[in-house]
Amino acid sequence: MAAPEFVYHNGKIVPWSDATLHAFSLAGKYGIGVFEGLRGYWNDEDEQLYLFRLAEHFKRYAFSQKAMRFDPGPSEEELTQAIFDLCKANNIRCSAHLRVSAFITNEGDMVATGPVGTTITAIPRPSASQVKKGASAQISSWIRIPDNVMPARIKCNANYHNSRLASIQAKQDGYDLPILLNSRGKVSEGPTTCIFLVKGGRLITPDVASDILESITRETVMKIAKEYLDLTTVDRDVDRSELIAADEVFHCGTGAEIAPITSIDRLPVGDGQPGSLTTKLQEIYFSLVTGKDRNHPEWRTPVY
Ligand code: PMP
Question: What keywords are assigned to this protein (predicted)?
Fold first, then answer.
């Protein structure tokens, strides 16, 4: 990753190398931080950078901080202004990934609830090649963190220890990504994405009590499937073998967008090619995020 010139750090736009944190902070010692990953999409015709579903990201960010018992940080208005200033400082005029992080800078006891630091990054990032060609997945031998251990619903930095272990195993075993089951043995999610399957024209996804992050892309997929294709998504417990029996499987998230999963544990999903419903949902999604499709203007916050 090429580092951008500027970062927002604790109230100021500073050079990348100045966004530092003490190694003995709670963030450094225990991963006590929460964050949101956002995407901005450049629209050439409008000469505009659209931030996708900013309001929903702020809502989840506030929930994560509440659940972690953080002291109050900057307001949404301050954060929005900071994001705008940062995109302009880095002259972001392409698809980009943004990260808004809140973390405990206290160097003392683990129960401290503040001070809360804030860092925002905005880094150009095109779609991954897997969006087109699909990905191979492994059912991980790691299980997803259960809700009464470390709630996956909270977008907490330390949760990604679980995602990382599963991702390293998948990579070392020659797969693109892991799919984690939960402690009840049902399908949960990918390391940074939610899972959908298509069977007999029906769209199915693990429900929110499956130890998943309540994904904004997952909710977007469900909405566009209904509005554009008149398909109601069934959210429920999903068995591991249903993934093998599926006609199509895809995963989705802000960073990964919507990407087909074309094999699982080396078995082809359907005919081993990206599925037609997946491709259709991708088309609708990319038109909306970039603002080529003008529906849902409330989902796109213009930066410039
Ligand atoms: N699950 C996990 C564990 C994630 O980190 C992400 C990425 N934020 C997702 C699912 C997808 O969530 P969203 O669509 O809100 O980006």
Answer: Aminotransferase, Plasmid, Transferase
